[in-house]
Amino acid sequence: MSSLIPSPTSFLNATAALIAPSPISKSQSPLTPTEGAPLSGDTTLIPNKYLSEKRDEDAGYPPSPLKTKSEAQTTSLNPHPSRSVPREIPSLVRSPPSTLLDAPARAAMSLPNGHTAAAQARAVRGGEVKTPEYEVDEDGYSRAEDVPLLAAPNPIRPSLSRASSAASTASNRGILRRIFIDRSSTPSQHLTRPTFPPPSLSTYTPLSPAPLSLWAKLNLLFIQTVSVILSTYFLILVVLWAVAAELAKWLPKWIWPDRPRKFPWDDEEYWKKEGRTVSKDPAFYAKQVGMDIEHQTVETDDGYYLKVHRVIDPDAQTHSDGRGGFPVLILHGLFQSSGSFVTSEDRSLAFWLAREGKYQVYLGNTRGVFDMGHRNLSRNDPRFWDWTIRELAMYDLPALVEHVCRETGYDKIAFIGHSQGNGLAFISLSLGMCPSLGPKLSVFIALAPAVYAGTLTTGFPFTTLNKMDWPTWKRFFGVLDFIPLMRWAYDYAPPSMFASLGYIMFAFLFSWTDTNWLHRRKTKMFRFTPTPVSSASIFWWCGKGGFADRKCTLDDSLPRWFDKRFPPLSIYHGGRDFLVFADPLLRRLKEKEKDVKVIKVTKLEDSEHCDFYWAAEAVEWAYLSFLDDIESTRPRYPDEPEFPEGGTETDLS
To answer: What 3-state class would DSSP assign to 278?
Structure first.
């Protein structure tokens, strides 16, 4: 293979100018506000003439858009119609910086393109805005004396796409940690969200994506060809290193084998016979335990289709009003899918909650998983993969929550998120994003909360990856999904081979072990791991300026992240999880987040990152406690007995 590329370094340097994807078009027509669309859930960003309701004087916020009812007709593309029609549409002009923006709004301005959208939001708000006295900082940018160093310099004029607005400033703050991703192919709807409001309150009508030109397709083909070769070399290096490390650990076990533990509840002979077949369809595993799974599709407000798996229990009963059990939404972590919660046989989290808790269990998936597509973009289009955890928090989670509420008829649901699944929820519920989603959640159960990085991010390969800026990253990993060879192996490799290599690689990268697992389940567990993830998203986690570099998903310097709309929180973390740390989050909740009610903090000393649902004893370790969290917080029917006291607030001292 090396003979095909005699000198990769010189070859790449000679073609560096061709690496960056070209813009969709050289010139684009200016955006115009949608009539009557409020700018945000934050009333300081909504013109008075758009407001038709009184503010909630107690909370300081308008009624949640998720609770607001309108006489206007709703559609799938506009589930929350505008509250009123403005008399006139103001023009988009540059406006001086506003001192009325709260900290989260100013913070959002330091996100890639965030200051552009915020400037447009202020322009639409109109009116004279007093400009405070400014001082020039060491970077050469002028900022208000009384404004924390959160705001990026204002652009000369609002623009839809710039070569690198993120890299044009040295500011590294924001409600989301500053990451240097601002690609010219970013869909326009991602650039026009002032302070990232709830997706249903979009200020502007997104532009229809134009087809890629012939030059763009050739450019993409070249980029991906180079990146596939380089990323394959990288993956082979990691796998070989991981296999060598696994052999070093396996040799002593081969000489002195460990006897697997026996459990009284485990019908080992039955499952060795009936559970040998491995499938990529979660419904296959449901049928093994006498249940079924219904495949559902959800469309996000930016056009992505998400796969949702609804667990069907034939023994489920309905209430007097025709509704089923209380709904529970479970969301997976990075590189995983809903399949992770159905591969532990009859003790799988999804099946256990449905049977023991009598709940309606929905398994969510983020964009790109299970080969799901987009309303306008193909999976081979770089714009399809142009997203990070910001879009998952802003679009995917609200779409999933609203879908489950609409399907079940409940106003609230319980939410369980693992790793990235709860990391994006913390972001979504933060000020400046979608805090109005909080009242829709009866409880937020965070497994291995992905807010603060653990010590693993200080070792290989994270220390290598976090030195790469975005242009370098594109050369190695492309602008589509991260390391396409993993996707091809998922589709075509034998299940046992794919699962074995997947486990070895993840065990090496994240220091996972199978100590707490039933070994016969491992092939099924890793049939759904890894799953496709965008290259940009992994750059957000591992690249220069990303999570592994800054050690936090949110800005730890802000005085607060959440308000009282944040749902009751239950945290589970493991004593042997070195990928993320919960202790800094607990300190933050105790010292700064006074509005967050923490109902439980559970530390499982022997648990690793995924053992909350993969451990052989997960029922005893965690599931029973999940049941307590849900029952102590969910709304109850009049004829239901009150749940015994036990869901009281945890003392974090």
So the answer is: coil
* Residue 597 near residue 562, CB atoms below 8 Å: no
Dist. CA 164–CA 184, nearest whole Å: 8
If you classify domain 238-260+294-633 with CATH, what class do you get? alpha beta
C-alpha distance from residue 484 to each of 43, 169, 232, 534 (Å): 44, 32, 8, 10
pLDDT of residue 650: 61
Taking only the tens place, the pLDDT of each residue in 273-292 is: 887 888 989 999 999 999 99
pTM: 0.71
Mean pLDDT on 345-373: 96
Residues contacting 9, CB < 8 A, separation 6+: none
Give the whole-angstrom CA distance, residue 557 versus residue 438: 23
CA 72 – CA 62 distance, rounded (Å): 19
Can you state the angle between helices 214-255 and 484-492, rounded to 10 degrees? Answer: 70
Number of CB atoms found within 10 A of residue 513's CB: 12
Element (H, E) at 352: helix 349-356
Alpha-carbon distance of 592 to 559, in angstroms, equals 7
Q: Which residue has the tokens 């998983």?
A: 369
Tell me where in the chain the CATH 3.40.50.1820 domain(s) lie: 238-260+294-633
DSSP conformation letters of 378-392: -TTSTTTT---HHHI
Q: What is d(CA 489, CA 498) in angstroms, rounded to the nearest whole number?
A: 7
Mean pLDDT, the chain, whole residue set: 73
Sign of the Cα torsion 425, 427, 433, 438 reads positive
